[in-house]
Structures are given as structure tokens and as C-alpha cells.
């Protein structure tokens, strides 16, 4: 079943990594499509075989012939038929299962198709070719019925649609598990044109990766909010997640001491007799103080589990971007570690996530056996997708559905507005970064050189008593050269953190449309209640249950929003403090340097 | 004797000033060529008559038919025939007299020809069409003999070749004496693209103006250094200019108290029943404390007299640029006053110039009669051109001609090198000015707006306890807007003075090639001494006299160079102090503002 594929973009193999260099327009033969991690094995016309990023090619003939046109129009009740909640693990089955999702590209797609969900509210300036502009937000919301609502809900099944989306949860220790580093879309260009770290943004592989993820978890991907709204089973007692009424409204239960952890000490490991290399990070939780080592792919596995389990109620920010090349370079490792740290900190700060079994498993690696057992258990967890709401217990009276809808609309508006604001700041910051690292220091350097040049001309005057001025001019010139360097280096000391924080929030805000989408779909369902009762599709009691359930969902959403707000206020206060503190230091240092330069000039 | 002329550039008449609007390519008839000040009266095809800048037109037929081709090759001794030293005032005679100068365009020339001497060492970036790139410096120096040396010397007759050169010294009170404001080439673009003051740089009228000036003073224009080297008459006692040996070498005699004056209080005056307007500046000398009023044309007259009398020994910096349009606008008047002040200060600081009769006349205007008498006397002064050296008396032993030549070469090298250095700094400064007034403040403004925007989004969250952060963010945003404004306004507070000083020095340095050229021509003459004696052209005694005279010239040049160096050291120390002081304040103020913004953010 060998398929031909057309190469869409040039790709240069990284030496020693079994990659295949291909040119745009070249036709290659896919020899293994099940590599995972956004890669396929392919053979070129010369007979050379190697790995090529999936998004760099376009299959000339789709292999499993399941097209969107064949999607059956499922009825309301089909959507929460019991079979859909069962766990299916075979890829074959998953791809077929995909057919129920009208919005999901279910054949290996071209990059443009594969990454539809990448950015819900705006087109990235820095988007690689693979990220096109089919925005989720552009779809009508809150007006769907039946199938349409299911379609909207299914958008969540694509996973959280921000910059990065993880690859499929590969099995342990398969040969290709080094390929956990496919860089996807960009965030802001961290090192500007300097090309620091040599990281090349090659376009996202997440479209197809996400497909694999959703294939694996049909409980999360194949059903709408009805599954919860009309479910019979109560959650087990030990899993209960309470929502309290706090000063600011509904809040999660926060632990007395906040969990924290440090991601540090990246080390290069290798396997297969050194043929395959990877980076391992040390994760040190504040609870145990026992370090555990994890590779990026482990983080990614954790992300997938959290997304699967909590994603309907809690926006799970994506991991830092994947990367095809340069992933062993120091700068890249440093930045990835910083971002993994940021991600872990955010997860630790979340009372529900940090307290979850799967998160604790990640932090408490004892031995391989224990880890594998924990992994299998987590992967078999059936309280995923909308069913997470069945574990939530608000300690407050039921909310009026109108209030529920108003709150939901308000959150939707706010997160959109903030997303715009954050992106605006990122754009401005990116330009400022470029100026500070490009033309501005060059100009200060030229000023410095001009002063020094004049100084050396003056030195040649042959006039007595020239030295004081020429020394002073030289010193002033050197001062401006120092300022040039300071200007160029400053963004790393302040703007960097402002950008990182906003980039993190951009990612987090990118998750909200899906999380809020679940709520909107549920609200639409509840609105149909009377009609459903009238047509005999549900019992009057079901309608009462749905109203109660939507109230629970709203409490969860409010608790999550309040969690978001409180974190946001803390984060922005903190990053602005840091930014301004560094800016003050910067300007003070310049003033001090200039003061010294000034003191060398004398007039009688 | 009406001549046709072709219009080279569009010129738009300023309303109410008797000007004539003409279009490029149009043919006009010159009705009066003796207007002066760089203007001619012309009639267009419709019969309309008005004034047109001389440099904007090209005569299709020269009026006094004296072409360069007809220049007689004057012999060495013809050059200092007694008649050439006599004072001739009729324009008619002057134009004919012009024919002895091979390099001087002696017919009303096109701008390209007329402004050859505009910039000796480099082409201006901001040159108007009238300033082409025929550099004096490109001509071989120090290698001329006989006629060639005369040619080099004659280059001085063009007047000092920097940005501005004055118009002919018009007679008192002729109707057109408002036309004293023809802007010539640019210096640095003071107000950047902002177009402040609305001054349009229309191209220099100085080429032809200088021609008139030199026509009037054949003593200065028609002879080489031989006039002095072999002159018989000793200077009168009261005019003696001594050169002393100071610590740094030969120096002028400096007065005990340095003259100073303040140029202030520009007032618009008018005459001819308000038809003609002009600006009058108040000049207040520190000696008398009695203010005198002078128009630009009076400054210009003074400049011409100083150039004529001292130009061979002392570089006389040009006045600030002339200007055709916008000359009554506030910004322009302010800048011109500032530059007139700078020029006057430099003249006051010069011991020879400030002590001269003509300069004192300018500062001590009593009444119209006294002023006119003084003017006529000054204009009849015969100790002009190289003859100024006959008044100089070094109190030191004669110098060896080889040392004289070495010194001269050294000064030449230094002034060229400094000219390059100054121009380099001006270029850098101009770019910095543009950045500081253009993209940089815009960027800070955008940062400020982005913070404020985020603040207003946060304000809409509906979350309690938002106010502290949003207030702080708004304050930070406003701070960056303030910084934007500071950045945009800062160049006026510091870079402006650095630029003005360097611009002044650029002008001053532009005078040196001519002043040094006089010396080089004299050195070449003296080198020919043996040959001239051998061929019986001069007496052996004349050779001794020439050696003595060249020594005197060298003492004068050294005294002037030492004056230049001491002023330069003072000026650069002073302007760098001012620049850095303002820069320190600027950065300190920013740091202080940011510190305040910082203090508003709180984290627990």
C-alpha cells in the first residue's frame, strides 16, 4: 500500500538522525506512514530511505479511503450511544471512528488542512506555511442545534487549538520515540533575526498529531455534552471536585500549601547504541524534594492525559513548541526548559490539576514498572471529556439557565478581548525587540565610533593640551559603544519575560474557545429541553437533570475563570514589576555611564 | 540689451513680494540683471514682470560677451601690476575684470556652474540642484607653477566655499534690499521630515552672488600672493597685527577682556508703505551695552567686508543660510537668530576680527549718517586680500621655508581630516535625529497604548480586586507615552547643539582650503625664487624679501591655527558637556518615571 507523495517544502536532513533531504516538488514514496510524531518514512527516486516531516508532503492518493463526504448524519441520540464511551486503542479503528467528526481531517492532510484549529481568533504574523487561517471563532456559536452543536463540540476533539499541539501518545520505547520534537507554529520570534539557537520554524505537525490523539480517545472525541447532561451514573466519591462560594464567587478548593516544582538540569541521553539521542529534564517537586527525570515526550504524554481528562472544564495550555531541527542546541534546550518550567508552574498552581492522580504520577516516578502501571491506569480512565463535570459538586444552589448563559457569554467576550490585547502587545513587543537588537544598537555604535574618530583626528593636531579633550571624547565614544551593547542585550533581561508571559497567556487563551464551546453546546442542548420533551425524545425528569447539570458546569466554569483571573492578576503584576525594574536599572545604568563620561570634559 | 533666459527649475512666487512664478523649460526675458542679491527681474510670455532667482534660470545668450575662451594668459608680473590694486566700483568694469580668473564663471551662469566651490571635500547629501560636486580638493595642490598657482589662488576669489555665500554688497536702500534671504545649500536637516518652519531649500544663489562680490574687489580677486610677496609699501603703523610666541607657538595678541555680544529680539519691520518686510535683530555688545539693530543684509555686508579683508589669513565662516521662502516664519527666525548669534560669538572671540574697524563699526551704529560714512570707508579699504599680510608683524625670527611648507601641509591634512570627522558625526547625528523623532517615539507610544489597552480589557473582567492592576497598567502605559514624547523632544535639547556646533565647524573647515590655498600658492612662488632670479625676472633682493614674507604668512597661519585649536577644544568640551548633561538628565528622568510606574504594581 505504498503511496506517492509530493514534497511541498524543502527539508534538509539533520545528519545522523535517519532523515531524508527532499526538495519542493519532488515526488517520494511513503514506505511507512505509522512512524508517529509527525514523521513518515519515505523513499526518494534514488532509492534512499529516511524520515520526512509529515507536513512537508502531500499524499497524491489518500491511503485509508475515508473522506468527509462519507460522514453519516448522526442523530442526537446516536451521539451518546454507550459504545462511544468505550476505549478503543487500535489506530485502524480510530481512523474509522474519525468519520463521525465532520470537521476533522481524517486522511493524512496537507499542512493547510491539518492545522485548521491552530489559532482561533487571529492569523499569526509569524505563522509557518502549515498554519492557515480557518478560525474556530468564525463559526457561529450558541446557535447550533443537534448535529451542529455536536460539530461545535467536536471542535474540542481537535484538542486545544493554540500554537502547539502534541503528537499521538506513542507507545513506550518504540524505536521512533526520539521524534518527540517537531516544532510547530511560532509564538513570537524569540531571538529575532539573529537566528540564535539555529531553531528553524518548519511548520506545524500538530494537525495530524492531534488527529492521532483524538483517535485514541473516542470518549472525548466522539460525543457532545449530552453524554454528561443526561448521564445516569454518579461519580465515585473519592474523585469529587468541590466548588465553593468564595469572596469572588465560585472557587475551586485550594490546597493549604501550593505545589511547586523546578525543571532543571537538562541532560543528553541516548539509546540504541547511541544512534538515537534525547534530552532529559530533571523535575523536582516541592512536596517530595525527590527529583524525577522526564523527557519531552513524557511531558507530552502528561499534557495529553490532562487535556483528555480536564479539557472540557479547564483550559490546558499546550506545551512549548516542538522542533524538528536544532533541538540539541544549547539555546533551544535552555528556552524549552524555561517554557516547560512555566508550564509545570501553571499546572502546579492549579488546584484540580496538581491534585490529580495523573499529575502526581508524573511527579513521583519511582521505577519503570510503577511508571508503566500508572500510565496504563491513566490511559484507561473513563472519566474524561465532558464526564469530568460528573465529578464536580458545587456547594451552592442551582443557577438559573439565563444567568448561566450570561456568564458564559461574558467569559467568552473577556477571553476574546484579552486574546486581542495580548496579541497586540506581542506584536508591539516583537517590533521593539527587533529595533532593540537591530538598528538601535548599530546607531549607538556609530555615534560611539564618530566620537572616537573625532578624538583620533584631534589627537593628530599637534596642538598642546589636546589630551584632556581627546581622552574625554574617546571615553564618551566608548560609553556609547557600551550603551549599544546594553541596548542589544536588554530585551533578554526584561522584554523577554514580558513576551514569555504574554505568549503563555496567548496559548492559554487559545484554549478557551474550546472549553467555552463545550459550555455553549450544553446550553443549547438545555434550551432544546422543552422541544425534546414534547417530541418524547427525553423524559420531563431528564430536563430537570439537564438544568441541574448545566448549573454544575457553570459553577465549574466560574471557578475556573476566577482561578484564571487571580492567576492573571498575579502574573501580570509580577511580570510588569520585573519588566519595569529591569527597565529602571537599564536607564539608570546608562545615566550613570554618561555621567562618568560627562565628568571628563572640562571648560574653564 | 534684453536677454532671453531658459527657466531651469520651477519657482513659485511668494505673494506680495514682486516675484514671478516660472516653470521649468519656460523662456523669459531678462528686464533687469542688476537687481543683486541673487535675483533678476524678468518678463514672461504673458508680459508679466517680476523677480526670479538668478540660479533658477540660464541665459540663452550672455550679455557682456566675455567668455572664458577669451581669457588672456597673463604673465607673472602682470598679476601684480599696480592697477589691479586700485578700487573699482562699477559693475561693468568688474565683469570685465573677471576675465583674468580662469576658474571664475564670468557670465550669469547656470547653478551647476555657479556653485562649483560649494563644498570642497565632499558632496552634500542634502544638496539642492544648484550644488554640484566639482570639488576644489580634487584639484592638485602645491604642484602648480606660474599661471596654475594663480588659478589655485583664484579659487579663493570665489569666496569661502561652504554652504552659504553671501550676495553682492548691494547699495544702501535700493528697492530690492529685502531680498537678502536666499536660502542656499542645507547643512543638516534641522527639523527632519517634520518640515518645521516650512523652509524650502531652493538651491543656492551664492555662485553668482560671489561673482558680484569678487567683481567689486579686484584687489582680492585679480591677483595672486605675489602682490604681497613682492610688495614695496610697508603697512601703516596703526594697522599692525602682531604675532607673539606663546606657549603653544605663534599666537595672535588677545585682548584682556573678550568681546561678546547678544543677538536677540527679532522684530519685523517694513518699508515702502508696508510693501516690503524684513526682520531686524538686536545686537548688544558687551563693551558698550548699547543695542544696535541690524538686518540680515547688514550681517551679510559685514561678512563680505571681513572675507575681503581677512579671508587670506583668517577663515571667515559664512553666515547662516539664506532662504527664499518661509523667512518670516517663527521657527526659521529663531534658528537664524541662533545661528547669527553663533557667528557673532565666533567673530567676537577672534582677536583680529573683533578688534577691526569694520567690526567695531557694525557694533556701534550711532546714526544713519555715521553708518553710511563708515560703510563707504570700509568699502574703500585697500588693505584687502593678500595685502592683509603686510600688516602682520611676527615678533620672532624668520622661519625656514621648508618648515613653513611642512606646517602648511600639516594644517591642510588636519583640517581635511577634521572635516571628514565632523561630516561623519553630522551624518550619524542626522540619522539619530530622524530615529528619535520618527519611529522610536511611535514605538514607545504603541507600547504605552498596548499596556493601556490591556488595562481596559482587564477592567472588563468583572472580577473583584482588579483595580490595583488596571490602575498600575494604565499608569505604566501613560509613562511609556510620556517617554515617547520625551524621546521625540530630546534631540532639540541635546543633539541640536551637537549638530549646530559641528555644522558651524563644517562651515569653518570649508574655509580652510582657500585660506591654506593662499599659503600654498605663496610657497610655490617662493620655491620658484632661484629660477626667477636666474631668468632675471626678479632681483636677488626680491627673493630674500619673498622668503621673509612667506615666513610672516606662516606665522599668521600658525597663529590662526592655534586660535582655531584653542577654540575647537573649548567648543567641543562645552558642547559635549552640554550634550552629555542633557542625556544624563533624559535617562534619569525616564528611570524616575519608570520607578514610579513600577511602584504601583503589587504582588503578595
Commentary on this structure:
- Two copies of one chain form a homodimer.
- By secondary structure, chain A is an alpha+beta fold.
- Chain A contains 18 helices and eleven strands.
- Chain A has helices at 76-79, 91-97, 111-114, 146-157, 206-216, 218-221, 226-229, 296-310, 330-349, 351-354, 357-363, 368-380, 401-437, 439-459, 467-493, 495-527, 529-534, 540-599; strands at residues 3-7, 27-36, 39-43, 49-53, 57-59, 241-246, 249-252, 261-271, 276-285, 292-295, 392-394.
- In chain A, the strands form three sheets. Chain A has a five-stranded antiparallel beta sheet with strand order 4-3-2-1-5, with no helix packed on it. The first copy, chain A, has a three-stranded mixed beta sheet with strand order 7-6-11.
- In chain A, strand 3 (39-43) and strand 4 (49-53) form a beta hairpin.
- The longest helix of chain A has 60 residues, at 540-599.
- The first copy, chain A, is globular, with a radius of gyration of 28 Å.
- At the A-B interface, helix 13, helix 14, helix 15 and helix 18 of A face helix 12, helix 13, helix 14 and helix 17 of B.
Amino acid at each position: 500500500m505504498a503511496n506517492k507523495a509530493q514534497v511541498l517544502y524543502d527539508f534538509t536532513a539533520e545528519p545522523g538522525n535517519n532523515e531524508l533531504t527532499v526538495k519542493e516538488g519532488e515526488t517520494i514514496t511513503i514506505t511507512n506512514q505509522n512512524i508517529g510524531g509527525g514523521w513518515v518514512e519515505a523513499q526518494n527516486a534514488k532509492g534512499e530511505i529516511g524520515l520526512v516531516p509529515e507536513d512537508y508532503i502531500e499524499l497524491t492518493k489518500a491511503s485509508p479511503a475515508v473522506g468527509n463526504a462519507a460522514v453519516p448524519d448522526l442523530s442526537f441520540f446516536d451521539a451518546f450511544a454507550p459504545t462511544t464511551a468505550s476505549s478503543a486503542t487500535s489506530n485502524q479503528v480510530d481512523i474509522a471512528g474519525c468519520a463521525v467528526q465532520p470537521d476533522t481531517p481524517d486522511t493524512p492532510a496537507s499542512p493547510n488542512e491539518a492545522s485548521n484549529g491552530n489559532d482561533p481568533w487571529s492569523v499569526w504574523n509569524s505563522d509557518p506555511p502549515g498554519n492557515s487561517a480557518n478560525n474556530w471563532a468564525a463559526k457561529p456559536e450558541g446557535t447550533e442545534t443537534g448535529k451542529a452543536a455536536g460539530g461545535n463540540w467536536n471542535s474540542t476533539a481537535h484538542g486545544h487549538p493554540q500554537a502547539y499541539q502534541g503528537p499521538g501518545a506513542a507507545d513506550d520505547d518504540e524505536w521512533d520515540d526520539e521524534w518527540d520534537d517537531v516544532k510547530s507554529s511560532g509564538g513570537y520570534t524569540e531571538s529575532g533575526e539573529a537566528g540564535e539557537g539555529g531553531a528553524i520554524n518548519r511548520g506545524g505537525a500538530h494537525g495530524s498529531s492531534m488527529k492521532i490523539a483524538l483517535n485514541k480517545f473516542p470518549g472525548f472525541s466522539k460525543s457532545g455534552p449530552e453524554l454528561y447532561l443526561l448521564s445516569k451514573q454518579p461519580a465515585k466519591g473519592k474523585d469529587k471536585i468541590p466548588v465553593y462560594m468564595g469572596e469572588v464567587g465560585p472557587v475551586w478548593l485550594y490546597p493549604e500549601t501550593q505545589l511547586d516544582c523546578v525543571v532543571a538540569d537538562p541532560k543528553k541521553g541516548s539509546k540504541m547504541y547511541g544512534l538515537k539521542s534525547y534530552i532529559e529534564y530533571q523535575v523536582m517537586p516541592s512536596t517530595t524534594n525527590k527529583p524525577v527525570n522526564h523527557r519531552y515526550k513524557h511531558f507530552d504524554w502528561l499534557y495529553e492525559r490532562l487535556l483528555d481528562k480536564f479539557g472540557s472544564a479547564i483550559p490546558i495550555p499546550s506545551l512549548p513548541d516542538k522542533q524538528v531541527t536544532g533541538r540539541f542546541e544549547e539555546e533551544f534546550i535552555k528556552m524549552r526548559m524555561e517554557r516547560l518550567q512555566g508550564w509545570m508552574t501553571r499546572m502546579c498552581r492549579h488546584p484540580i490539576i496538581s491534585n490529580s492522580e495523573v499529575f502526581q504520577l508524573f511527579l513521583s516516578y519511582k521505577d519503570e514498572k510503577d511508571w508503566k502501571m500508572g500510565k496504563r491506569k491513566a490511559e484507561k480512565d473513563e472519566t474524561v471529556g465532558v464526564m469530568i463535570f460528573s465529578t464536580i459538586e458545587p456547594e451552592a444552589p442551582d443557577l438559573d439557565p439565563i444567568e448561566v448563559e450570561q456568564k458564559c457569554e461574558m467569559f467568552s467576550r473577556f477571553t476574546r478581548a484579552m486574546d486581542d490585547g495580548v496579541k497586540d502587545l506581542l506584536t508591539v513587543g516583537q517590533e521593539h525587540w527587533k529595533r532593540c537588537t537591530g538598528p538601535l544598537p548599530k546607531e549607538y555604535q556609530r555615534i560611539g565610533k564618530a566620537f572616537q574618530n573625532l578624538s583620533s583626528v584631534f589627537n593628530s593636531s599637534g596642538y598642546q593640551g589636546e589630551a584632556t579633550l581627546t581622552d574625554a571624547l574617546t571615553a564618551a565614544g566608548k560609553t556609547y559603544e557600551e550603551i549599544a551593547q546594553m541596548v542589544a542585550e536588554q530585551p533578554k533581561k526584561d522584554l523577554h519575560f514580558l513576551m514569555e508571559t504574554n505568549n503563555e497567556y496567548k496559548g492559554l487563551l487559545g484554549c478557551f474557545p474550546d472549553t467555552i464551546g463545550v459550555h455553549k453546546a450544553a446550553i443549547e442542548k438545555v434550551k432544546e429541553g422543552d422541544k425534546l420533551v414534547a417530541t418524547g425524545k427525553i423524559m420531563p425528569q431528564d430536563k430537570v437533570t439537564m438544568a441541574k447539570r448545566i448549573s454544575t458546569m457553570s459553577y465549574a466554569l466560574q471557578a475556573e475563570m476566577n482561578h484564571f483571573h487571580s492567576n492573571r492578576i498575579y502574573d501580570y503584576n509580577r511580570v510588569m514589576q520585573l519588566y519595569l525594574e529591569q527597565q529602571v536599572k537599564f536607564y539608570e545604568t546608562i545615566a550613570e555611564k554618561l555621567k562618568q563620561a560627562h565628568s571628563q570634559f572640562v571648560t574653564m
